[in-house]
């Protein structure tokens, strides 16, 4: 019968001996993290001190495989953040934009509260309190902080710096009720009129508008594409000669700190790559724009600045907001056009087609965030109830 193994972290009998220097050495055999027994010793001026210090040394000896990072449960949370960001770069799974967003959220939302704490000091109660306090200020900030904290502490668990992730047991965040804010057909008409009036106004100084803003609005309405996706459309993405004109949405415009604004060769997600049939009003806007494009290379952007560089999404947002606010229209954003398109398609053909047009992997996302909830229940229920219970009265 095999002899049971001594558990990891168990030491044998401690013995002491006097050294030629007059000091005392306490030593024992210790079954280490890898299952091997090793000699561990400590030297002090007395037998009692040597034994006491050896026991302390054994209690602090790691029971898990030592990592090459030199980190432990006594490392600071700030050190873990640096290591986590480095690990993200090594994995290279996330887009550059997402990495920068994670770093910003960590450094601005989380680090001020945790940077002076060790990993051992960060427990469920502390994390739970922090997230709840942040949620009082903003649900979105609390959600973003919770996400990056969970990811960083999960790395600490995987590398056996801490036994469990305290973020796994914090209270669930409750999303505040939010009404989907879309445009009505009348609001779309007023926005079009405001943009057209701005483009056709008399110019006393500076260059005259070249019609791009109005054309961008038409394409957002005709495709449901995000503003960055519209600005990233190239001439080679257009097919206007087929019986059904189409545009391929396969990129987006990104602006990052320290980098020039540029076209990214993929949109938000892989599912977001799609070819969309164009309505007549969008084709008209595209043809009008193409007539003014001087460079005709395959990779030429449909929309660009006068110097040929990509527009930034923030500039388009700001210009649209300024024009419409002067016309008495509040909260006009490019994303609301996307909701307006989703609502129109849902009303006409159902939520599944709306989700496909928007590039969503799940129609529930479209239903929750893009289509206003209809209060009126199908009147057919009245007939069904009358048939079930009316005769009994």
TrEMBL record:
Residues 75-157 form the Core-binding (CB) domain. Gene3D superfamilies: 1.10.150.130, Intergrase catalytic core. InterPro entries: CB, DNA_brk_join_enz, Integrase-like_cat_sf, Integrase_catalytic, Integrase_recombinase_N, Integrase_SAM-like_N, Tyrosine_recombinase_XerCD. It comes from the Bacteria. Keywords: DNA integration, DNA recombination, DNA-binding. Residues 178-390 form the Tyr recombinase domain. PANTHER family: INTA PROTEIN, PHAGE INTEGRASE-RELATED. This is Site-specific integrase. It comes from Brevibacterium ammoniilyticum.
